[in-house]
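Continuing the series of single-chain predictions for the mutant panel. This is the parent chain; the variants come on the following pages.
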Amino acid sequence: MAAVSSLLHEDQFLCSICLDVFTDPVTIPCGHNFCKTCITEHWSVNVPCQCPLCKELHEKKPDLRINTVLSEMASQLRLSVQKETSSSSEEQPANTGEVLCDYCTETKQKALKSCLDCLVSYCETHLEPHQRIQALKRHKLVNPVENLESRICKKHERPLEQFCKTDQVCVCGFCIESEHKSHQIVSLREEYEAKKAVLSETEAEVQKMIKERQVKIEDFKQSVKLSKEDADRETATSVHVFTALIRSVEEGLAQLIDLIKEKHSTTEKQAEDFIKVLEEEISELTKRITEVEEHSRNKDHLQFLESFPLLNPAPPTKDWTKVRVYSSYERRKALRTALAQLQEMVTKEVKKMCSDVELKEVQQFAVDVTLDPETAQRELMLSDDGKQIRHASIKRIYSDSSKRFLSHFCVVGKQSFSSGRSYYEVQVGGKTDWLVGVARESINRKVPLTFSPQKGLWTVWLDEGKFKAYTDPPVNLCLNSKPQKVGVFVDYEEGLVSFYDVDAPALIYSFTGCNFTEKLFPIFNPKNNNGGRNSTPLIICPVNKTD
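Parent structure:
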């Protein structure tokens, strides 16, 4: 404070306890002045109440009231110090954002601490009194900050050291005793930690939202990539299908043209034959006319009558009135028949091509399925590689398992489907009875099963030459051929289970609108071997993915 001693006689405004300019000065009965906090703390330690300067004793603790005049003069002194410091700072070159010492008069050094009681920032050298003098040690030191005035209560000129949660404002000690007396008050550090925790939660939440959106972006990019791959594959397939279709139509058209040409050639040959016969008849008739004309010219009545019976009889001729070599009706009828045959051929070809394309599409999602021996009914025999299953008539020695089937010759795969699309193929050729499909994980395997979607089973089966889809009630299937290999396709999100005749290729049956909520497992039932007539195993085949 030496820098302002010539302005306001600093020594008259220094507290003899803290050796600093008065803060909330009070006058005790002996006439001496002290900071309210300083004298209160002094008397709380030293009993009885005694003046630190003149040692006058007081019988009871005086009622301390702030000396408003002295407080105002002390405030003026502080403002003068701040102005002097600001003026001194303006003379210094611009800094790089660091807080500088307010006491340095020449080259200003970097501040080490800021004092909230003095409202001054100190470098290491000028901070020394605050570290040495006992009264100054009680001052509130913080890391260097600018605008110290903003940390002081404008009403009471005290450091803002508390936080009013009720009004959500920073307050000083006097604010707590006045307008914020009944409010919820906490320390700045406590509120800082609380608000920081809220910010941390907010940051974590925002980071989570960002992460979710980044994941979604990747999902969209992956969807676009998959869509592009599907589009390219579908384009190539479509080109292949339509090329084959065009080829089939061209072949059908060529056959139709050949048929028309053949019909015309037949008509032309028939006409030529008829013309030849007609020309021969005309020649014979011409000869007849010549003979008749010659006989007609004979004027001798006797000779005419005697030679008349000698005339050659008329040559045999055909009745040509109903003979036709061309009929528009017959030609149209033949054309309609040819077109109907062409349409039927094209329809079959298109249907076959569409089925082939559909099968190739689902084959792209082939998965490797292996039988789970822990689920096999005890009369079933599994191959070592877990790819074949048949009924063996005698119970096998299997370990006890909660997953094992008891009432049906069933077994499920080790692999499960809980998302996306999956496909596998089963060889069923040579069997008279079989069942394949998918089953919900939670089905009760210890009781007789009801094979229906409502009970968590989506299956098709062959029973004595009859194909059925296990719905409620079962649906009879009319197939053009007996499948030798069955493909099973599951689209979990779409709720779809489809079965295909792989060799035809053709769709056998589809379960649609399914609501899958748990894992699905491939399920197989080779059925009873029926005395050896149905002993051929069900075989899980590798999928031949064709382009």
